[in-house]
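Comment thread on ticket #2218

A.B. wrote:
> Attaching the input chain for the structure job we discussed in standup.
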Amino acid sequence: MNQVAVSGTLVQKPDLRYTPKGIAVLRLRIGGAVADEEATRSHYLDVTLFGDKAARLADVLDVGATILAMGELTQRQAEGKTYTNLVARSIRAVLSPKVQDGLEQGAVNRFTGIGFLVDDPEVRVEGRLVRARVAFNSRDKNGETHTVFLNVDAWEEVGQELRRLKKGAQVYVEGLVRARAYTAKDGSKRRDVFISARVVRPLTWASSQSEEVRVVEATVNEDSGSWLSEDEFPEDLPF
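C.D. wrote:
> Ran it. Output below, let me know if you need it in another format.
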């Protein structure tokens, strides 16, 4: 499971396209700033919205609008690269400059997820930073499971919680969605979307015979009307 709520400024013109089945697909790129243990850094995230609301928003949005999006992180492979974006269940756009200023001062950036460690955590920066690769599963409206692989960075005390875990451990994570640019070994430019963790909690199996999992419920308020309810989730995105 993974759930995200993030706000930012629209930094490119909205890109509206249609699938062969006629489903509207709106791609937005939003940017914002997040303070971490080292500095305040800019981050950029691609947001995708499907359905009738996508077409309506495309007509009114322009560069500079403040966007509040809630949904799930998804990944796709293309040309040997992994692309991570937020598939939105709800998008709210603020066009008033006065309200925009207020939102930017109290920007929203929240991730909650339950996943499994793909490898043992790595210790970096003289023990201050612990990084782990975590697989987060989610199900679409058809009941199919999709997996998103994200790096989780945890500093100081939070990092010590992560450091104690081993490959295969189940973990609950709260934090911020971040992105960093880097150059791959082949010289190509890449972007890595990762989670800067604020809370890390190991999840354990209960001792009862029912073998229920003790988990922390983490939800965001959703505007169900903005999600695909009648159309099939598009398999072929027009991007």
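A.B. wrote:
> Thanks. Noting for the ticket: The first strand starts at residue 2 and ends at 10.
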